[in-house]
Amino acid sequence: MQENYRLNKLSKRLRSEVGKAIADFNMIEEGDKIMVCLSGGKDSYALLDILRSLQKYAPVKFELLAVNLDQQQPGFPKEVLPNYLESIGVPYRIVNEDTYSIVKRVIEEGKTTCSLCSRLRRGILYRIAQEEKCTKIALGHHRDDMVETLFLNMFFAGKMKSMPPKLVSDNQLHTVIRPLAYCREKDLAKYAKLKEFPIIPCNLCGSQPNLQRAAVKQLLQSWDRQFPGRIETIFRSMQDITLSHLLDRELYDFASLSSLSQQEFNPHHKANQAPVNLLASKAKSEEKPKREFTEQELDQLANDELFGSQDYDALARKIHDDHHLEDDDTVIKGLSIKQL
């Protein structure tokens, strides 16, 4: 009786949070066919279950297709997901691609496999979404994942960047959504336990104790124990950004700022004048500045370089070495897993 009460209360809260995220970011529309990526972990099970619940009462009609990528990991219980999905009556597709042996062959023992594994997996899922004519791809990342990614990028990549709740792929073909964006991981863990989902452990990422993400997770959890509510505060800050109080000159035009007194009392002041480098000599200031590549140009250069080669093991190593951190917004474009 007590467990039923706890489950109903938790279900209501999670449905509310998922519904709010969907509405806030316009994640689901009339007629959408949503590919729910099901890994066998607690988060993706919860995602599918909550979307099915919302589907019954939503004011718009949408389809769900559960997709699991069987990466041919040794000992993977192949029957678990099909049996579960058939028991609840959800359309599904199991995709068999041997990414496991590729990752184990390319990545040295003891090194992090996340970067390469996630890119291979994402490329395959994008292909399946196209084949199945899915309009949205739903991933099971939650609020804690987003906060962890923010700190990972700040600590190790020097970027203020997290996981977006909704994004369009670089080739403009796919829309990726994260309906669990407002959900706490501990709530999802409780929900999975109460619902008794048949959890499948991952022998790749789940067996690596020294991941940078695990270290950041431990740091955030220690903060939350010492200062309850800190993770919630950090997450709220990601939704309330003041660009004028950061330092990104591409996103905010600091150079053109001028006060009324500057305009009135400085006879040399000109609107929109070029910034002055006080450390540069007159001769140097007249030199033509070196051209810097934009991120889009660098992406294109990397794409041309990588896919002009037929050495796919070298390609995989290069991707792993160049992107030592997991970057959920990057995907190997145009690469068939069978070529690897």
Automatic annotation (TrEMBL):
Residues 33-197 form the tRNA(Ile)-lysidine/2-thiocytidine synthase N-terminal domain. Pathway: tRNA modification. Catalyzes the ATP-dependent 2-thiolation of cytidine in position 32 of tRNA, to form 2-thiocytidine (s(2)C32). The sulfur atoms are provided by the cysteine/cysteine desulfurase (IscS) system. Its EC number is 2.8.1.-. It is found in: Cytoplasm. Keywords: 4Fe-4S, ATP-binding, Cytoplasm, Iron, Iron-sulfur, Magnesium, Metal-binding, Nucleotide-binding, RNA-binding, Transferase, tRNA processing, tRNA-binding. A motif (PP-loop motif) lies at residues 39-44. Binds 1 [4Fe-4S] cluster per subunit. The cluster is chelated by three Cys residues, the fourth Fe has a free coordination site that may bind a sulfur atom transferred from the persulfide of IscS. The thiolation reaction likely consists of two steps: a first activation step by ATP to form an adenylated intermediate of the target base of tRNA, and a second nucleophilic substitution step of the sulfur (S) atom supplied by the hydrosulfide attached to the Fe-S cluster. This is tRNA-cytidine(32) 2-sulfurtransferase. It catalyses: cytidine(32) in tRNA + S-sulfanyl-L-cysteinyl-[cysteine desulfurase] + AH2 + ATP = 2-thiocytidine(32) in tRNA + L-cysteinyl-[cysteine desulfurase] + A + AMP + diphosphate + H(+). Belongs to the TtcA family. It comes from the Bacteria. One of its GO terms (biological process) is tRNA thio-modification. InterPro entries: Rossmann-like_a/b/a_fold, TilS/TtcA_N, tRNA_Cyd_32_2_STrfase. The keyword Plastid does not apply. [4Fe-4S] cluster binds at residues 114, 117, 205. Its main location: cytoplasm. One of its GO terms (cellular component) is cytoplasm. Pfam families: ATP_bind_3.
